[in-house]
């Protein structure tokens, strides 16, 4: 049980860090997590697998936190 609480706190912290730098990415990640969860539920996967997919969606853009915003938003 403590591991679960720690995992959710860690995921929320990571998401919060991304939201500080890029509000669009934070909203995008939340949307991906919700949509992925809905798809997985429709496929009939276990609750454990569905939650794993939701968490993956929540942090799938974590690498963006190491890239300067100027590069991410540069249009050429």
Summarize the structure.
This protein is 75% helix and 0% strand. It has four helices and no strands. Helix 1 crosses helix 2 (23-42) and helix 2 (23-42) runs antiparallel to helix 3.
Question: How would you describe what is shown here?
Answer:
It is a single chain. With 76 residues, this protein is mostly helical. 75% of the residues lie in helices and 0% in strands. The chain has four helices and no strands. Helix 1 (2-21) crosses helix 2 and helix 2 packs antiparallel against helix 3. 8% of the residues are buried.
Based on the model shown, name its key terms.
flat; 76 residues; 0% strand; mainly alpha
In terms of topology, how is this protein built?
Blueprint: H1 2-21, H2 23-42, H3 47-59, H4 69-72
Helix pairs in contact: 1-2, 2-3
Q: Given the C-alpha coordinates, what overall shape results?
A: flat
Helical stretch tally: 4
The sequence of SSEs as H and E is HHHH
User: How much strand?
Assistant: under 5%
End-to-end Cα distance: 49 Å
Rounded to an integer in angstroms, the radius of gyration calculated over CA atoms is: 14 Å
* Average residue-wise pLDDT: 81
Helix share of residues? over 70%
Number of strands: 0
Low-confidence stretches: none
Pairing-aware structural class of the strands and helices? mainly alpha
Q: Sheet with the most strands?
A: none
